[in-house]
């Protein structure tokens, strides 16, 4: 029922937040394509692709210039911490996604996220310059998101590694290590949750 | 499937925004009760009740102390414009709604709303003090909301008057006029849109 101009894309990692914004859009009548950004350094999109397929969404890789990742990694190595570099990469990804054929683009940023996150002025500028609509989960806190997604989805929780994650972090780590630095000193070990399907009954 | 602790209430006017957050919660598995605040000055909840029933939601009136409205109207008359008074009333309404039996409360505040709106610190304080979760449409701009609701709902668009609106404005106007001021000088005439049912086929 939504017209073709309202082609919709969600920047997708396979995690809780981006899965929730995708399912909200679907239940509101859209047929969003789930997109995972990739910079040609490592095929880190496989976990996101599997998650997307487990939720019956179309999926595609958003292939982007390695230069974006290089510049983000420059910032991370200079800073000694990842925030600014990841924020830069995310904003470049959103800019590039906005240039495609989608009238609405979304990501899973939630209320309590700090980085990466577009502020209100950046969103307004993006929407005006690119003639698109952008949305995210900024009205939802993590507790509410947990309540909803635990009700809707099955998950796999694992120690994050480059085979089970489709976050920017995977390719960033590869590039840091390639340059002779230790990515493990910049990114602490952590657990990550990946959606693997609907709860039985949905 | 959602446990009883996650009883959910939406502060509801019958307009686009509060109808959208209500339907999102419903499609995510909750059974929200739609609540319209009333201060005992005028039975302004009837339009919201009709809208709620047209969307097959449970509805109730949130009966509140007239003193809240009085204090809001004091501010509006002193300021000569409604923003601060409405913001005060909305925040008192949210505080009172948080004291009821609901684990999750929501309103239809969207990204481009200025007033009334809870900022991030107010939300955090509310959630901590009241041990509840609060959500709104802060991730969505008005264009996206229009796109979605035009696809889901039927509307009636009319010049706003006290018989067809359940906004705070109705009782505020009554009280301003009761006090011998002219509410029409503070609130300009405007059109308002009320949800009257689902689009056929939904």
Q: How is the secondary structure organized here?
A:
Two copies of one chain form a homodimer.
Chain A: E1 8-11, H1 16-27, E2 33-38, H2 46-54, E3 58-63, H3 66-79, H4 83-98, E4 104-110, H5 120-130, E5 133-137, H6 142-152, E6 153-159, H7 168-178, H8 183-186, E7 191-198
Parallel strand pairs in A: 1-2, 1-4, 2-3, 4-5
Antiparallel strand pairs in A: 6-7
Helix pairs in contact in A: 1-6, 3-4, 3-7
Could you describe the 3D structure shown?
The structure is a homodimer of 202-residue chains. By secondary structure, chain A is of the alpha/beta class. The first copy, chain A, has a single domain, classed as HUPs (Rossmann fold), CATH 3.40.50.620. In chain A, 44% of the residues lie in helices and 21% in strands. Chain A is built from eight helices and seven strands. Chain A has helices at 16-27, 46-54, 66-79, 83-98, 120-130, 142-152, 168-178, 183-186; strands at residues 8-11, 33-38, 58-63, 104-110, 133-137, 153-159, 191-198. In chain A, the strands form two sheets. A five-stranded parallel β-sheet of chain A has the order 3-2-1-4-5, sandwiched between helices. The longest helix of chain A has 16 residues, at 83-98. Chain A is globular. The A-B interface holds A 1-2, 6, 21, 23-24, 27-29, 104, 109, 111, 120, 123, 127, 133-141, 143-144, 147-148, 151-152, 199, 201 and B 1-2, 6, 21, 23-24, 27-29, 104, 109, 111, 120, 123, 127, 133-141, 143-144, 147-148, 151-152, 199, 201.
